[in-house]
Structures are given as structure tokens and as C-alpha cells.
Specification:
365 residues, alpha/beta, three-stranded mixed β-sheet, 12 strands
């Protein structure tokens, strides 16, 4: 399981350039004019994980299969989108289908690249989009509340729950806060997610800086980081131009280029790690002579549900999971060594999968 992250932002902030770099494709037309991305481009990329390669080396696996992650490049938004301005209606519909938002903000000065507002102020840009999403949510909530009136009169429990959650969200929005600021109990989590409120989605701010600022950021990116910290949101500093260049290089060349730029890793790696933290995702592995494979589940997932990510029959017929921590697998030189050293554990239905677990599921049927 991967996750679907919508890349959003005002026109000309570098969304499509970043998307092209991330997906190693030229599927999105990156151009210096608004709305060059009209239909949402979807790119699926493998999640780089050095642990997967290490496991494959130890086990002698013939192939490695990383877990996958989806990025959606969504058309640029303008002020008034909640009322249908620009490509507003389409933008809102596309973002509603995503699990999280990667909000790209222009944090570079370049007189050759136009800005829809004629100035570079990423914090104000963020507020423009947040306002549009909040307005769209308020309109949606008001319509839904009106539509629930009949069910409420009939005492429908689901309608009562929805009404309560919608009113809590509306109260936050009217106070100028996004829906994600609402504290939601575990028992309401599923219903809350089902509301598909735009401002309830977790957000990650992507500061697109000039190449010279990629390693340390700049005043613009620091202002965004301060804003994000106040919101409890994440930030990643990336130079879309650098990522675009790296995408054209072989791995060895890319490593040398990154070193020259004073960077430890590609922006894609940092973006994925931040995205994992944002959505509470972890990775477990299955390893054998044919393949070593990474699988993604949400933190807190129990063993049977983790098995179900591979195949539904594994979850339905789950018996137990033979489990080795990644560090133990490496230290013991593989599965046999871990078993001999007593580092292989037998886990049942109540086991909560941990990041890095190497697992083998036993099931009936």
C-alpha cells in the first residue's frame, strides 16, 4: 500500500517541475504560464529504502520490489477557486480524492518566472489556498447539514454522528481554523475521514528554493517553517530544478552531483520520509530467494491486516506471523541465523506490526 499525495499550489510555483522530477517522467508539461497542467497527472514511484537492498543482499534475492507511492499533479489554484474561478471546481474535486496535500510554495526570486500576484511571499500564498479550501469546506458542510435534517428527525444514529462532526468542523472553520484542528476521537475517526473535508487532510509544505539555497534554505523557507510549526504541519526544502537534473542522471552520477551541492540525499527521499511521518505509515518486508519486497501499512496495523495487504486470503486465514526485526535479520546474517539465535518471534492476531519487521505469514486455505 502506498498513499496518494496531491501536489498543489498557485500557478508557476514549480509544481509540475517537481512532479516530473519525482516521477522521472515528462508527463506534466512544465511551462511558464498558468494552468499548463489541466488534467491531473498521476505518477507512481518506488519508495527508495536502503534496508530493502540490504535484506536482498543477505538473502540472495533475485529481485527487489519497493513499495509504491502515488503523486498527483493538480492544476494551479487561484483566488476565488471555491467559487469556480480559474480551474477551481476541478482542483477541489481532484484534491478531495487524495490522502494528503503537498503544498508547493515558491521560495525563490526569479524575474523571468511570473507570479500571479506579482510578488514572492510564500506565507501569503499558503493563506490564499488555505482560505479557498476553508471556504469550499464551509459551503459543503452547510449543504450537508441541510440534507441531514430529515434523517435527524428520524433519529438515524449515523446522521446524528455526521451532524455532530460537521458542526464541530464548521465551528473551527468559522473561527478561521482548518478542519484538521478538530480533535477527533478514535470512535469517530472512520466517519470523520468519510466526510472528505479538504482542510481535514494532513498537509506538508514543500519550499521550492533556488539551487544555491537547496542545502540551507533561505528567509522565505524559514518563514514557511515558522508558519508550519505553528500549525503542527511539516515542511521540506527542495529545489525542483536540482531534482529535475538528478532525474536525468545515473545513480552514481546523481550521488556525485548531490555531494557537490552539499546535499546528503535527493529531495524525493526527504519528501517520502516526511510524507510517511505525516500519515503515520511504516514499512515491513517479506524476504526470500525469489524476491525481497517492501510493504506499507499504517502505524498500529495488526498482523492479520498487514497480511491482507499482500492478499485478502492471508488475512482471512491468518494463523501466525514469523517475525524478525530488521536489525536482528542483518546482525544474524539472515533468517536461519536469526532463528538459531532465538531472534525469530511467533506473533499472533493481536501483534502490532513494527517498522522494519521482516515477516512470513502462515495461513489456512
Amino acid at each position: 500500500m502506498g498513499f496518494k499525495t496531491g501536489i498543489v499550489g498557485l500557478p508557476n510555483v514549480g509544481k509540475s517541475t517537481l512532479f516530473n522530477a519525482l516521477t522521472r517522467t515528462a508527463a506534466a508539461q512544465a511551462a511558464n504560464f498558468p494552468f499548463c497542467t489541466i488534467e491531473p497527472n498521476v505518477g507512481e514511484v518506488g519508495v527508495p529504502d536502503a534496508r530493502l537492498d540490504r535484506l536482498a543482499d543477505i538473502a540472495g534475492s533475485k529481485t527487489t520490489i519497493p513499495t509504491r507511492m502515488n503523486f498527483v499533479d493538480i492544476a494551479g489554484l487561484v483566488k476565488g477557486a471555491s467559487k469556480g474561478e480559474g480551474l477551481g471546481n476541478q482542483f477541489l474535486a481532484n484534491i478531495r480524492e487524495c490522502d494528503a496535500i503537498a503544498h508547493v510554495l515558491r521560495c525563490f526570486e526569479d524575474g523571468d518566472v511570473t507570479h500571479v500576484a506579482g510578488r514572492v511571499n510564500p506565507v501569503e500564498d499558503a493563506e490564499v489556498i488555505e482560505t479557498e479550501l476553508m471556504l469550499a469546506d464551509m459551503e459543503s458542510i452547510e449543504k450537508r447539514l441541510a440534507g441531514l435534517s430529515r434523517k435527524l428527525r428520524g433519529g438515524d444514529k449515523e446522521a446524528v454522528q455526521q451532524d455532530r462532526l460537521l458542526r464541530a468542523a464548521l465551528e473551527a472553520l468559522e473561527a478561521g481554523k482548518p478542519a484538521r484542528s478538530v480533535a477527533v476521537d478514535d470512535e469517530d475517526a472512520k466517519a470523520w475521514k468519510g466526510l472528505q473535508l479538504l482542510t481535514a487532510k494532513p498537509i506538508l509544505y514543500v519550499c521550492n528554493v533556488a539551487e544555491d539555497d537547496a542545502a540551507s534554505g533561505n528567509a522565505h523557507s524559514r518563514a514557511v517553517q515558522d508558519m508550519a510549526a505553528a500549525q503542527g504541519a511539516g515542511t521540506v526544502v527542495i529545489s525542483a530544478k536540482i531534482e529535475e537534473e538528478i532525474a536525468q542522471l545515473e545513480p552514481d552520477e546523481a550521488a556525485m552531483f548531490l555531494e557537490e551541492m552539499g546535499l546528503q540525499e535527493a529531495g524525493l527521499d526527504r519528501l517520502i520520509r516526511a510524507g510517511y511521518a505525516l500519515l503515520g505509515l511504516i514499512t515491513y518486508f517479506t524476504v526470500g530467494p525469489k524476491e525481497a519486497r517492501a510493504w506499507t501499512v499504517r502505524k498500529g496495523t495488526l498482523a492479520p491486516q498487514a497480511a491482507g495487504v499482500i492478499h485478502g486470503d492471508f488475512e482471512r486465514g491468518f494463523i501466525r506471523a514469523e517475525t524478525i526485526a530488521y536489525e536482528d535479520f542483518v546482525a544474524c546474517g539472515g533468517e536461519a541465523g536469526a532463528r538459531d539465535a532465538g531472534r525469530m518471534r511467533i506473533e499472533g492476531k493481536g501483534y502490532e506490526v513494527q517498522d522494519g519487521d521482516v515477516m512470513h505469514f502462515l495461513h489456512s486455505g
